[in-house]
């Protein structure tokens, strides 16, 4: 099981927006900025689907995604890859829905994307670029 470092956890909590990349079953890529996500444990990230279109279609066809973490507030530069599950009911979805509504009634929280982290890679330039960290 992948276990994020404290610096990685802090970066995920502090950096917004985070680019989320997906691909269709035919390999057509898509990337969007996301702002509503939460690290729930060392290997799980919740992402709230408020306005996904191509992203949601891609995740239904190909349940894999990647997050890029870098920017003001980050302690490094890394890429997270993982397997996803889409939830539209249940306790986890209800908690994510409440989280979205706390930020504003305008957020519909159509689904909860549960990302189970499988790999983490280095993104900064230099000889370690692309190296698997976890």
From TrEMBL:
Residues 4-122 form the Pyridoxamine 5'-phosphate oxidase N-terminal domain. It holds the Pfam family PNPOx_N. SUPFAM superfamilies: FMN-binding split barrel (SSF50475). Signal peptide: none annotated. Gene3D superfamilies: Electron Transport, Fmn-binding Protein, Chain A. PANTHER family: 5'-PHOSPHATE OXIDASE PUTATIVE DOMAIN-CONTAINING PROTEIN-RELATED (PTHR40660). This is FMN-binding protein. It comes from Methanohalophilus portucalensis FDF-1.
